[in-house]
Amino acid sequence: MSQAAHLPLVRPAAVGRDRALLIAGVLAGPLFAVSAIVQASTREGFDFRRHPVSVLSTGELGWIQIVTFLVSGVFCALAANALRRRTEAGSVWLPRLLALYGLGLIGAGIFSADPADGFPVGTPRGAGQISWHGGLHFLVAAVAFVSLIVATVVAARRAARQGAGGRAAYSLATGVFFAVSWVALMVRPAPTVMVAFGLAVSAGWLWVSVTFARAASGKAD
């Protein structure tokens, strides 16, 4: 009864706007992935086995990855705000964490990474020196990563309480995979670990897209 009483207060235009923002959130991940793959395939010297996607924001064409960070981050933050306004979302922490993830991506675009390990071409091999903006890039990226990991745990707990075991397992597995590969990358950035982390980032984006897609279809948790 209480839900029915609130329905007239929700304007169709607002519902349509929120759905459009949620769809933008769904598209943020594919946009990020396609941009990274195209750049990695066309920019000389880049190797997924040695370089994180962040270094694509360096060099003459670095603006492409910077724009990718900014657009995908804005899409994610706006979609999280729309998710917050949907009463079906239940937990207030999931939208907050996804918004923080989006803001972290925006920060990663504002504070670009440093050239490293031979990329762009002409850069000395090895980690290289970290500039002030490179240090801030690592910091905001860490905020985004932690926010995403915690968001998967929050979603897993809520799904488990609702009896949705499969959805809970999917969320938790995504978060664990992301966390383990990230820690492994910091401990030993070997080629296999670098590739695993790239796959974890893709898995994280897929989870974000699925989360926003559920909300856009009226199945928000």
How would you summarize what this structure contains?
With 221 residues, the protein is mostly helical.
What does this structure look like?
The chain has 221 residues and is an all-alpha fold. Helix content is 71%, strand content 0%. The chain is built from seven helices and no strands. The chain has helices at 2-6, 12-42, 62-85, 93-110, 132-161, 165-187, 191-216. The radius of gyration is 19 Å and the shape is globular. The two termini are 20 Å apart.
What topology does this entry show?
Layout: H1 2-6, H2 12-42, H3 62-85, H4 93-110, H5 132-161, H6 165-187, H7 191-216
Keywords:
221 residues, 7 helices
Radius of gyration, taken over Cα atoms and rounded to an integer in Å: 19 Å
The fraction of residues assigned to DSSP E strands is under 5%
- What is the H/E string? HHHHHHH
Globally, the shape reads globular
Please tell me the overall pLDDT. Answer: 89
Q: What's the count of strands?
A: 0
State the end-to-end distance: 20 Å
Low-confidence stretches: 1-10
Q: The biggest beta sheet, please?
A: none
- SS field, number of helical segments: 7
Structural class: mainly alpha
The helix fraction, in percent, is over 70%
